Known about the structure:
12% strand; TIM Barrel; three-stranded parallel beta sheet; two-stranded parallel sheet
Amino acid sequence: YIDDPAIMAWQVANEPRIFTEKNETAFTDWLDKTVDLIDSLDKNHLICTGSEGSAGSNANIDTFERTHKNPKINYLTMHIWPKNWLWYDHKNEEETLPVAMKNASEYIEKHIAVAERMKKPIVVEEFGLPRSNESLDPGSNTTSRDQFYTLFFERLLKSKTNKEALRGVNFWGFGGEGIAKNENGKWNSGDPFTADPPQEPQGLNTVFSSDVSTLELVKQYNSRLR
């Protein structure tokens, strides 16, 4: 795959975590050795670590920065999951959506600042929000999700205009016509893929092909970014 133009980058792992402070040296050593190995094998593609950011670095932004000093790490990554991080509760959407938006914005800015200091681009590699009431139904409401997505798209547009370090945002995830077969969203072998991992309800964070308002947002911002 060294000469494959379809590949943008290699990633060390999905969400590698330090877990404890005493692991930082060993963790950094492992990251560096893995990144160096990838670089020795392939000079044609970018390399990133797949980190969530400070959330995977003992909630410490300085730790995140220290562990990403290898110059062969071409760009930084961050992930933002308001439901998983208890910023957002679908049972109290009205009060917790603003909290999720505020926390997400602060998280983004904190990581952009690191990227600017390190003179590396950064990508919001994963972000997502359930539909209203955590419905798995493709016809259910996506108003809150659309608001949440807009926050990321607007920040990316601002970064492009101001020539800042944020270079991309990837929503999770596009499921197209894939729909959960079971009412509880449980995935079984042979079921359609919806972009949600098998341990989570299928459709939880899925953007379906019928989500007109969400897809229109994506289309509009892509046009503005050109």
